[in-house]
Amino acid sequence: QVQLVESGGGLVQAGGSLRLSCVASGITFSSNAMSWYRQAPGKQRELVATISSDGRTNFADSVKGRFTISRDNAKNTVYLQMNSLKPEDTAVYYCYAYTWGQGTQVTVSS
Fold it and tell me: What is the pLDDT of residue 75?
């Protein structure tokens, strides 16, 4: 079955950076789009970024220009590079492809 394992979350000050990783197994990784979502306390889960199998990317307006998404098909891994972090980026970040990962907490202090 599909398994997604995220890592890289943590506590960072506003303006800082983090890179999240998601390792996938159980799928033909190179053939699939991969997405990052986030869910803040009391809010609905929202789409943050998507990368297609051929590398095309899309971002939520709230993160455009600050976040980038990339993939390494040789490692079955998708990354979310988050720069210029803001307190409102605080959330649990989830990787998605057919199923959800367990999530990784990102906390941005002001």
Answer: 98
